[in-house]
Design a protein that fits this description.
The structure holds 2 protein chains of 2 kinds. Chain A is α/β, with parallel strands linked by helices. Helix content of chain A is 28%, strand content 23%. Chain A folds into 6 domains: 1-128, Rossmann fold (3-Layer(aba) Sandwich), CATH 3.40.50; 136-221 and 392-407 and 571-638, FAD/NAD(P)-binding domain; 264-325, Alpha-Beta Plaits (2-Layer Sandwich); 414-569, FAD/NAD(P)-binding domain, CATH 3.50.50.60; 643-702, Alpha-Beta Plaits, CATH 3.30.70; 722-843, Rossmann fold. Chain B is mainly α. Chain B has 9 helices and no strands. The chains are: A alpha/beta, B mainly alpha. The A-B interface holds A 417, 462, 466-469, 503-504, 528-533, 544-548, 551, 553-554 and B 17-26, 29-30, 35, 37-38, 63, 67, 69-71.
Chain lengths: 843, 159
């Protein structure tokens, strides 16, 4: 027995249709009972529904009232008290009928067709159960920058165990490299240092440094992540971070090394040496060839560092204590942490304030590890005996949720008009190291070519950003960080002429405009003009720009040029996009599942994003992201099990041929193709239904919004009114736009009758053609705007199907113009009406 | 849409953010009145720029178009606008001699004694191989110019 409940909605519905006629017509149906209520959503109305279900032993319910988007949840809960909450349908006779139709008679007839559609569809409904998936309470955070650390801390504070995976030897990411931060000029290291230590000390966080993510399998709630940790060649537990091994006497005159160096390990103090030759003899006994040789008696021995293995016998045995260790490790290479400025040894920590402060050896340059010689330098000097042979370690970790915080890097502008090859053309991040007190110049602004203090500094904004050739988007933080660095230079050296060439100054944020005002007051010159090229005349640089406000081409002289380089996804971010199911945007960053309403959720359930892996953003927004992500993770993992309503797709293994088409189209990695049979991972499935459109054997089907359910809805409508245009509207946009049109009392032809689908991409070609076989005048599809599909790209895929179906309709002689897809956002009620009218006029 | 508007539209002037990269890198603009960015802005605002004399200062080196971050086809726009200018009779008379040369010798800038001397110094043939040294080819060039009414068009210029 089906119970049909008509709602008057006061006069909202009953005022524009003949309720008596509807009841009379519906009463002609077999096995059906009709009730009317003035307000069905009221307690009285709900009681009527519940009592009728019990009394009449209803097995299906049809609610004829407002939009399911309006009171759908109320009715679902009410009906769910008495029967399975999916055994009912809703006919939207308010927004999409009484409000959208001028003529009462027409509205009544349209309502009858919509109700009949809902009745027929309701007959096809099956009970829908729930699946419970066990949840692992551990979380993995990938990336130990400011966003990752903060997310890890927030999640750990909520009681979850966190594996924090970092590819570098230390945590802290790019923020560790900054001198100060806008708009407060706080010392970056002072801000981040407590966070670094708190992360390292937290009992719920274990940090995996030098570790890459290799693979992610499993499903939301139980991901299995394979991680590979590269060896440090220094024992992590015993190393005290004392730095004896990295001792050096190298003083750099300019910020940049010309190349790798092999320094002397020892210094012979000529004033103390008496030329006894003991050292040379000992050296010759120990080493072949010897590093110390005495050409003639009483002469000061000659030393060749390329032969010295660092046994230190000479230092220990010299009777005059004339030999001093200057470099335990003789190998010097440019420092990665300092972006190629400054130097490090083959045994090193990235930065003196690195967390964890544990040394590591670089197997490429370490003389012992790369096999150049049996070097014993650090192994002998280290009191803790920490340098060791070491191997990489591959582990599998089980986690319930994953946070991706893999960050950004600077666009490589080598080989462009910006002349980055010139040593005095540097990037913003390089400048941070040059003015940082812990940087290679200890905070002295020296230009790389010769170490002189520059007298003119030109900042070039949008270097690579907002540019179709490099990065099309605005990198968001550059206006502010260039202004910050310009201010810091000006504050230290008021005599330096500082110019910023910009296109548009974007200072939107708390305290930003004021910060910019102060910069102008400090005498920083802003020129509104993009830079065409950077030329060089020896160490001197020339910058071609235009003062666009004066219409004047300019040639600026500069001692130092700083490029505000575009921010692009880091290598780690790109690697992760290839490794785990993440969807990149057009800009290459990881796209959130919805840019507005789900900004830290990815398309894959249980995988979240924070920080600049998503887009360029300032530190405060990374922190906001991290907090949001921690909240989302906690919500996701709060119970021991995740409960999912099985409105998802399911595969009939008897007819599945395992072709993999469903897996190919699925944006959520929700098809498990590992086992003997293909299965839908219910907890990952978003129930968009796109998979059902590509299965060649119809083996995969949505449990709700099934093929038969949609077909019967169309049947019901057309049975009552063949002069109809069937409008398949997606639940996310097209349907909402139609509701909005009705709410605004925009009228459109009652011929247009809407059948709700989860996503436009769920509509198959047969479903497009089917209404024509039943006499429909036309078919339209209401989809989200391109690029705004709530299931990522259902509308784009649907567009291809519509093009094909149009050809079929042409061949059939019906005419392809009788089918059309319209991209309409939720807010575009008027566009829905316009599209509907266009369709009616065509059919 | 009138032809000037169409030329502007076809060249993507609506994408221009007035950054100034074009003017900044313009070798001609350093010596002349040409301000490419301003031309693009005027075209974007629907102004008819075909009467501006600086339209003829562009050497079509394509520095601006290649480096334009937004993909505005500045040089193509200038060439289109010049064609429209000629059709309207807005044509600097100073270019007429080059055009007469083109018609009479097949080369807008025929060999000058100075250039001939330089060619000799660097060991090139006295005369370059072009239409001016191939009379039968020159006749073909003239024929094309006659059929298209080229001379009438440019001689009608008033500027």
């Amino acid at each position: 027995m089906i119970g049909v409940f008509l709602c008057d909605c006061g006069t909202n519905i009953a005022g524009n249709m003949d309720m008596e006629y509807l009841k009379k017509e519906l009463a002609k149906e077999d096995n059906l009972i009709v009730h009317e209520s003035i307000f069905l959503c009221s307690q009285l109305g709900q009681d009527l529904i519940k009592e009728t279900i019990e009394k009449e032993k209803l097995d299906r319910v049809v609610i004829c009232s407002c939009s399911p988007k309006h009171h759908g949840d109320i009715f679902k809960e009410c009906i769910g008290e008495k029967m399975n909450p999916y055994l009912w349908e809703m006919a939207n006779i308010r927004e999409q009928c009484s409000w959208a139709t001028e003529n009462k008679e027409e509205a009544t007839q349209k309502a009858l067709a919509l109700i009949k559609g809902a009745i027929e569809a309701s007959r096809t409904l099956q009970e829908i159960g729930q699946a419970k998936v066990p949840v692992i309470k551990d979380v993995m955070v990938i990336g130990g920058g400011i966003a990752g650390m903060h997310a890890a801390l927030e999640v750990a504070d909520k009681g979850f165990h966190v594996h924090l995976v970092e590819q570098n030897p230390n945590i802290g990411g790019n923020m560790c490299k900054l001198d100060r931060t806008f708009p407060t000029d706080d010392c970056s290291m002072c801000t981040i240092s407590p966070i670094l230590n708190e992360t390292a000390m937290h009992k719920n966080i274990d940090i995996l440094t030098m570790t890459d993510v290799e693979d992610v399998s499993g499903h939301p709630g139980e991901y299995i992540v394979t991680v590979r940790s590269r060896p440090r060649y220094v024992d992590f537990t015993t190393c005290t971070g004392c730095g004896d091994c990295a001792k050096t006497d190298l003083v750099m005159e300019k910020p940049k090394l010309d190349g790798p160096l092999w320094l002397d390990r020892i210094k012979i103090h000529e004033d103390l040496c008496n030329g006894c030759g003991a050292c040379a003899k000992l050296c010759a006994k120990q080493n072949d060839p010897p590093a110390l040789t005495q050409k003639e008696k009483d002469a000061i021995p000659e030393y060749d560092t390329h032969k010295c293995v660092g046994c230190w016998v000479c230092v220990e045995k010299c009777p005059k204590k004339a030999i001093e260790i200057t470099n335990v490790c003789p190998i010097v290479v440019p420092s990665e942490f300092n972006l190629g400025l400054g130097f490090r040894k083959a045994i090193y920590v990235p930065d003196s304030q690195a967390v964890p402060l544990k040394y590591l050896r670089d197997p490429e340059t370490c003389l012992q590890l790369n096999g150049t010689m049996d070097c014993q330098g650090c192994t002998t000097v280290c009191k803790a005996k920490a340098p060791c042979q070491d191997t990489e370690e591959v582990r599998q970790l089980k986690v319930g949720a994953i946070v991706v915080a893999t960050g950004y890097e600077q666009y490589d502008l080598s080989g462009t008009e910006y002349n980055l090859e010139h040593p005095n053309v540097i990037t913003g991040l390089e400048l941070e190291r040059l003015i940082s007190p812990s940087g290679p110049t200890l905070g002295e602004l020296k230009r790389p070519s010769d170490g002189k203090i520059p007298q003119t500094v030109v900042f070039i904004q949008c270097a690579g950003s907002r540019d179709r050739r490099y990065a099309e988007y605005c990198s968001k933080i550059c206006c502010m960080y260039a202004t910050k660095n310009a201010r810091l230079i000006k504050a230290d050296h008021p005599e330096i002429d500082v110019t910023i060439c910009y296109i548009d100054l974007r200072a939107a944020g708390r305290g930003y405009e004021e910060y910019f005002d102060q910069a102008r007051e400090m005498g920083i010159r802003y020129i509104r003009g993009n830079v065409s090229e950077v030329l060089a005349d020896g160490d001197q640089l020339l910058v071609r720009t235009e003062n666009t406000l004066l219409n004047e081409p300019l040639l600026l002289e500069a001692d130092l040029v700083v490029l505000s380089t575009a921010l692009v996804p880091s290598q780690g971010t790109k690697h992760l996009i290839e490794t785990i199911p993440l969807v990149p945007g057009k800009d290459g960053f990881i796209a959130p599942v919805h840019v507005k309403i789900a900004p830290v959720d990815t398309a894959t359930t249980g995988i979240f994003i924070a920080g600049t892996a998503e887009a360029p953003k300032p530190i405060q927004e990374c922190i906001t992201d991290a907090g949001a992500v921690a909240s989302r993770v906690a919500t996701f993992l709060k119970d021991d099990q995740i409960t999912v309503d099985l409105v998802t797709s399911h595969i009939n293994p008897d007819i599945c041929i395992k072709c993999g088409e469903c897996n190919e189209i699925c944006n959520y990695d929700a098809i498990d193709t590992e086992g003997d049979i293909y299965e839908v991972v219910d907890v990952a499935c978003h129930a968009c239904g796109m998979c059902t459109t590509v299965c060649p054997t119809n083996a995969i089907e949505l449990r709700y919004f099934s093929d038969i359910q949609l077909e019967k809805a169309v049947d019901g409508i057309l049975e009552k009114d063949r002069d109809s245009v069937i409008a398949y509207c997606c639940s996310q946009c097209g349907y909402n736009a139609a509701d909005l049109a009705g709410t605004a009392k925009m009228r459109y032809s009652p011929e247009v009758k809407i059948v709700r689908v989860p996503c436009s991409g769920r509509v198959t070609i047969p479903q497009m053609l089917y209404p024509f076989t039943k006499g429909a005048k036309g078919v339209m599809i209401g989809a989200c705007l391109e690029g705004q599909c709530h299931y990522i790209d259902g509308n784009i895929k649907e567009k291809e199907k519509v093009a094909l179906a149009k050809q079929i309709l042409d061949l059939m002689g019906i005419g392809g113009e009788k089918l059309e897809l319209f991209n309409i956002s939720s807010a575009e009620g008027a566009k829905f009406v316009e599209s509907a009218e266009k369709m009616v006029s065509r059919c | 849409m009138n032809p000037v508007e169409k030329a502007a539209r076809d060249s993507n002037v609506e994408k221009c953010v007035q950054c100034g990269k074009c003017t900044a890198g313009c070798p001609s603009g350093r010596q002349s009145r040409l301000r490419t960015r301003t031309l693009v802005q005027m075209a974007y605002q629907g102004q008819d720029v075909t009467g501006l004399p600086e339209l003829w200062d562009c050497t079509t080196c394509y520095n601006c178009a290649e480096r334009c971050p937004k993909g505005v086809n500045t040089v193509d726009a200038i060439i289109l606008l010049r064609n429209l200018a000629v059709q309207k009779g807005n044509f600097p008379r100073i270019h007429l001699s080059a055009i007469e040369n083109l018609y009479n010798t097949g080369n807008g800038f025929p060999l000058s004694p100075e250039v001939a001397q330089i060619r000799a110094i660097i060991g090139l043939k006295k005369e370059p191989y072009d239409v001016s040294t191939a009379p039968e080819e020159l006749e073909k060039v003239k024929k094309i110019l006659d059929i298209t009414g080229f001379l009438e068009l440019v001689r009608g210029g008033t500027t």
